Amino acid sequence: MLKALFATLLVACGLTSAHAQTPASFPTKPIRLVIPFPPGGGTDILARLVATQVGQATKWNFVPDNKPGAGGTLGIAEAVRAAPTGYELVMGQKDNLVVAPWLYKSVSYVPNRDLVAISHVAYTPIVIVTSANSRFKTLADVVTAARSAPGAVKYGSPGNGTTIHLAAEIFSHAAGIKLLHVPYKGSNAAMMDALAGNVDLMVASVPSALAQVKAGKLRALAVTSASRSTSLPDVPTVAESGYKQVDVSTWYGLFAPAKTPPEVVNRIHAEVNKVLATPAMIQAIQEQGAEARLMTTREFSDLVQSDYKKWKDIVERSGAKLE
């Protein structure tokens, strides 16, 4: 009986060893990439670009899966609940990771506790745009109109509680004006109404608005970052327009559920960063209105933690709170 038991244990150990996941063998099946916003927005564009380019370089099979809702928090929450195997990743950004937890009462996740930072992909300014047929030619025109009729100038955003929404509110506060916020379920819906003139302004990430600006269908009035966007070099910053208190940008990156094996995280990080460092990928990201920036996993994790603390104070000062 003891010999039989010993033989059974040997077989079991052999099977376990044969099926164990190692960095060299990872991945052995498709990797699901959760995108917490609808198709067509900045997060979706960059997530699919990464999935395509890394997939081509490594022969890995990524399956993009859009899970929008509640300012991107539903997709993040789904990723937090996923199995920590490396086969469930999420493209997160400042909006839903470091801002939303302080805004939404229902959000219970903490970024560096419930997720592992893998690779910083890109950062981008936020841009204030209007229809090409709009009466607004400059940001000063918006301020003048809003002061003469508080609450009459409407702006669309990808949703309540996003960095984009708060960037617009920070600008409004700095300019001493009252704008009417119209939240949408993603950038595409807001874009359609901005193009049609149903809202006076749209506030968006540069990747979301760039194609329409270049096509001449939208007019870019200002970017909210400290320096001009390399994709829109002729567009002034909000600070250059007279409101130096406004300096808001956003970042995007890949995350995995907490407790994902470090060796798998490092394997994904190495392959993603290898692709991000290529001139072709740097140019592709820039063509989408963003800027590539390589970081180690530690540097990216530190950025997330730093912004998480910073935006707690910003949200508390704003008094904003969402259900």
Automatic annotation (TrEMBL):
SUPFAM superfamilies: Periplasmic binding protein-like II
InterPro entries attached to this UniProt entry: BUG, Bug_dom1
Organism domain of life: Bacteria
Signal peptide boundaries: 1-20
The keyword Nuclease appears for this protein: no
Presence of keyword Signal: yes
Keywords: Signal
Family the UniProt entry places it in: Belongs to the UPF0065 (bug) family.
Protein name: LacI family transcriptional regulator
Organism expressing this protein natively: Cupriavidus oxalaticus
